[in-house]
Amino acid sequence: MIFQWSIVALVIAADQLTKYLVETKMHLWQSITVVKGFLNLTYVRNTGIGFSLFANSGRTADNIVLVVIFSIITGLIIFSFMWKERNWLFNLSMGLLIGGAISNNVISRLFFGFVIDFIQLPYWPVFNVADSCVVAGAVGIGLYFLKRDGKNAKRHKDRVESHDERSG
How do residues 58-84 score in pLDDT, each as one tens digit? Predict the structure, then answer.
């Protein structure tokens, strides 16, 4: 559990620090080329939800309420799994997911009313460190469950075959 909360704290610190640096060192809509044709740092403010969905809805307060409700429900589901699973990939993934969600949805949205996005790749919406951590965490959790369920399926198959041999 300490490992997960350390990851959460690290993600929040990294995300908030990078957002602070972007906000204090760049001006809104400024873009800096890092790798030509591949990576830019572009300062934007996202008032919508992930990937700027609903950003222009004109109902920012409603969006924040939805994000908070969704975050609470997701948090309850996440915490219920956290007590049960004891695997490094699962714990790392949950730490990334929770840290990213807290940094974007609780700290940035509730305290500032928007999220600072700045990582720009071709053909992809501008995003930030927290977004990256949420995606990496979700992928990690998916891989963990695929691996775990594959092992469980093999164990079940072995038990069935063993039972069939004894019964047969």
Answer: 555 666 676 677 677 777 766 766 666
The domain locations on the chain are 2-157
Whole-model pTM: value is 0.78
CA 45 to each of CA 14, 22, 68, 117, 118: distance values in angstroms, whole numbers, following the listed order = 18, 11, 18, 6, 9
Query: Which of the following is catalytic: 117, 149, 158, 164?
Result: 117
- Report the alpha-carbon distance of residue 103 to residue 130 in Å, rounded: 6
Catalytic residue, from 131, 149, 158, 164: name it: 131
Dihedral angle, C-alpha 102, 3, 134, 130, nearest 10 °: 60
Give 58's DSSP letter: S
